[in-house]
Specification:
single chain; alpha/beta; 14 strands; about 35% helix
């Protein structure tokens, strides 16, 4: 061995040995010690439990893989509710399922979708939520494109020609490449042309008057699907691609006899072009599904009773329902798991809180914040006694900001709490003070509309809007567990500090100028959101 090579080899062995020793000295999964501004044994224990003994990964696997998506009104959602109760029992805390109404029930089975002519191809897609099935039998039909009509009268005259056919009702996308792909690789002229084509099809196929029919696709097939069904069509074919590779929204239908499916951008485009060019496509569906009528739906509530101020509350909030094109992983499995793990940490390290700590796993958020609105109506004492609510519904990313919900005094308390967190954690958080009350995007708005202290949390995107929000790709493997572990630990610490706080947050509201100093949000004058009544049974969204 050359002398220089020998030296390098010896140094390499020394370095590898040192690294190996360092790795052995740190337990697998352990974090570097945190720097606490002041000693607090409970905060320190919450950190150790949350960062070194996290259960988020095993909880996520059970929820997202084994139980799966939690579509409102389905047996899968009820199984998830009961799973939560079993965990609460293991942890020695109080738990219950509170029925808040009913919702349309449904059972999803298989979706087999095939192009038969002019060539054979298994199509990528699935039936929409609440679609009728085909009784596990093959349903084969030709396809027709929804034409452009002068008005709804012309549409009604056309309907008999579509009887017994699959009708394509979504925009034919001129490209299935994401915008960033075009930005990176296309000439400016080509990019501008593609942008114009995309805008044109969006205008033509969107809104409440799709192609002059007078009807809407809403979040799937809407009133248009119902009218096509009444006209005797065999089924409805849709596609709602994201601006991303391979992702589509999978929403809902209100059809009861004519099935509705969602195809990928690529396969919808294929079937559309074959139809447009008179190449005689036929499609075969074999769908297993069952409409079950109105079924009871539940919020699942866990409680650790307060020892000194039991009538004041700290509330961990996340919606538990999901759409079911994927597994509901980042919307809102990750928010639910954040609150569930935070609740476990608190039950372990802080079993006798000063104020009552509640975790609320809300149902039917996707259908109008139904569960959380119902809870505020059924539990006005919690709204009145609320010290702080922490809500998370923004995907798997690390929490980087916390808003005070439009309450200046909430901002004072939030600043104090953040000052007591580990330095490594606090420096990542941007407080939004006074912030603004949630206007309806998630369940914190069900409480904020009353002027209660509801702290919304925002974080790293991880391409949430493009790849996982309501899509076929929202699955376990998209969860970023380091971020989820961090979020659960952060929420547990904030809940502890809110519970221990010597004073209760007062509810003076920020002025419009404080909340929106540049003349309002979205270009209009700011006004505090008003509370809306929870629907207690299915409310169709047809437009």
């Amino acid at each position: 061995m050359h002398p220089l090579r020998f030296v390098r080899h010896a140094l390499s062995r020394t370095l590898v040995g040192s690294l190996a020793a360092a790795c052995l000295a740190i337990p697998a999964g352990a974090q570097a010690p945190a720097t606490f501004p002041t000693p607090d044994a409970t905060l320190e224990r919450l950190w150790r439990l949350g960062m070194d003994s996290s259960r988020v990964q095993s909880l996520a696997q059970a929820l997202l893989d084994s139980i799966g998506p939690r579509l409102t009104g389905t047996a899968r959602q009820k199984a998830a509710n009961d799973w939560l109760l079993s965990l609460y029992k293991q942890w020695g805390v109080e738990g219950k399922n509170e029925q808040i109404g009913t919702w349309r029930g449904w059972r999803r089975g298989h979706s087999h979708l095939d192009l038969l002519t002019p060539r054979v191809r298994t199509l990528e897609g699935t039936m929409l939520a609440w679609s009728p099935g085909t009784k596990k039998k093959d349903l084969t039909a030709s396809t027709v494109i929804l034409p452009r009509f002068a008005d709804s009268t012309e549409f009604v005259r056309w309907l008999p020609t579509a009887k017994g056919k699959f009708v394509l009702v979504s925009a034919p996308q001129p490209t299935c490449r994401p915008t960033d792909n075009w930005t990176t690789h296309a000439t400016p002229e080509s990019k501008a042309r593609m942008d114009a084509l995309r805008a044109e099809v969006t205008r033509e196929w969107g809104g409440v008057n799709v192609r002059g029919t007078g009807y809407s696709n809403a979040l799937g097939t809407g009133s248009l699907g119902v009218r096509l069904e009444q006209g005797g069509v065999a089924g409805v074919i849709t596609s709602r691609p994201k601006n991303a590779w391979g992702t589509i929204d999978v929403f809902e239908t209100y059809n009861t006899t004519a099935p509705a499916i969602a195809l990928s951008c690529e396969d919808y485009g294929l079937v559309f072009r074959l139809t447009e060019n008179n190449q005689s496509p036929t499609v075969r569906l074999n769908l297993d599904a069952e409409l079950l009528g109105e079924q009871p739906i539940f919020n699942t509530i866990g409680t650790i009773r307060g020892s000194e101020k039991p009538d004041e509350y700290v509330l961990l909030s996340a919606h538990f329902d999901s759409f079911d094109g994927g597994s509901g992983a980042t919307d809102n499995g990750t928010g639910s798991l954040t609150m569930l793990e935070a609740f476990r940490l608190l039950a372990t390290a802080y079993p006798k809180p000063k104020r009552t700590i509640i975790v609320g796993h809300w149902t039917a958020e996707e259908h109008g914040l139904v569960g959380s609105r119902a809870y505020t109506e059924d539990h006005p004492e919690v709204v009145a006694g609320l010290q702080a609510l922490f809500n998370q519904d923004g995907g798997t990313g690390r929490i980087l900001s916390v808003g005070a919900g439009g309450l200046p005094n909430g901002g004072v308390h939030l600043t104090d709490w953040l000052s007591k967190l580990p330095t490594e954690m606090a420096k990542q958080i941007t407080p939004r003070i006074p912030g603004s009350p949630s206007g309806g995007g998630s369940d914190d708005s069900s409480f904020a509309c009353y002027g209660a202290p509801a702290f919304g949390m925002g974080g790293t995107s991880w391409d949430y809007g493009s790849y996982t929000w309501h899509t076929n790709r929202d699955t376990y493997d998209k969860v970023v567990f380091d971020d989820l572990k961090h979020n659960a630990t952060l929420v547990a610490m904030l809940a502890y500090l809110a519970s221990e706080d010597a004073s209760k947050i007062t509810r003076e509201r920020a002025t419009a100028e404080q909340i929106a100093p540049r003349g309002g949000q979205g270009g209009g004058a700011f006004s505090w959101p008003t509370c809306q009544k929870a629907p207690r049974k299915t409310q169709p969204r047809l437009r």
